[in-house]
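Q&A log
Question type: sequence-to-structure
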Amino acid sequence: MAYNPETVNNKLTTLQETQDSVCTVASWIIYHRRHAQEIASIWVTKLKEVPAHKKLNLIYLANEVVQTSRNRKKEEFINAFAPIIGGSTISAYRETPAPIAEKIRRVVQVWKERSVFPEAVLKQIEVGLAAADKDRTDPVRVAAASSSSRPTIPSELREVVAAQTSVSTKVPQATSLYKDAKAQFGETSSMVGPATVQASQLATLLKTLDAAHVAVQGAINDRTTLIKACQSIIEMNSTAIAGEQAFLEELASKRSVVADRKAMVEHALATGTELEQTTLADSWASAQEAANPRSRTPELRSPVVEELTPPPPSAAERATVPSATPAPAPAAPVKRLHPAHGQAAFPDSDDDDGYTPSAGPQQYAPPPAANNGVVYTDKKTAEEKAQELLNSLTAFQKPPSFGQLRGFNNAFANTGDEMEGISLDADVMDLLKEEL
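Response status: OK
Response body:
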């Protein structure tokens, strides 16, 4: 892969605290030893930027590059790192916690034992580490460092910060591996040559693609975790906003009540009028009742009862439904009694006036059931009913007709012996004689 400063910066950013990661990046850097001075400068800048736990990774990388170059008799990186390694190592040692600082000290001890750097550089590093250890044991300095390094991240955001930190670490690494895999695939795609050479290059390309795939998948997983953590924070704050909105409305309502009360008191003081004997609590209760009308006691009302009588039929219904009330049945013929004696019956004649007195009260016969069980009323008008009633009264006032008297005379003709025991009124006898 071609050299450029951006590539160096990406590789230093994605460097992990593993032997494979350190050795891979170190091999690439050594391959581009012609740019040793520029690479060493980029390394110093990155060492100052990264957090404490990342500084150890860069110390490991510098150690691997320098010792490998020394073993190969290549002096480019020893000469490039010698002027800057002392101050950079001391600064990293001071800024890291004790467990990481102890690992840095072990690396410096290896440099001293193997004489990796010149004696003056190693002496500078030893003095700087001793001064840093003295500062760590000073109570005042320890308290100041503890207070300055105390985390200020809210507990609700710790999960988000952890996820974001992981994303910030893995995304550059995944991007760098993706670019390397893409470039290596482009170089290998036009490969020609013996099968053994192609097999080796293809195996290397396959490892590179697998590494890039794992890195990109890890970045995606971390971003998913970050999104879930952010959504949880959003939901929590949305719920809190709903409650705080209710608090805000309550405070605004109380402020309005207090302002109105203050204006009323000031008006009473300015005009000298008597202040209304109400309290602020009364005003607040009135405002609450006006704002929430549902809280009032509902007025009790008698229930509405539906009437049981059905409504009368409309004019259209009365016109279309025929009357179901049957006409009165004709009375059975009865024997008429003598008006005076009430014993002998008058024979019926064809020339009477048609009056047939009732023999007694008739038995009630219910009308036949109409369609669908509905009984309809008679359609006779009031004038017709009144005329029938008048005719019936007039018929009761009529005296017996001459036909009825002749029937009476025939019944008693040739019964002179039988009449002897019967006493008739003189006027009646005269009428009988005239008739005969």
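Response note: DSSP finds 16 helices and two strands in the chain.
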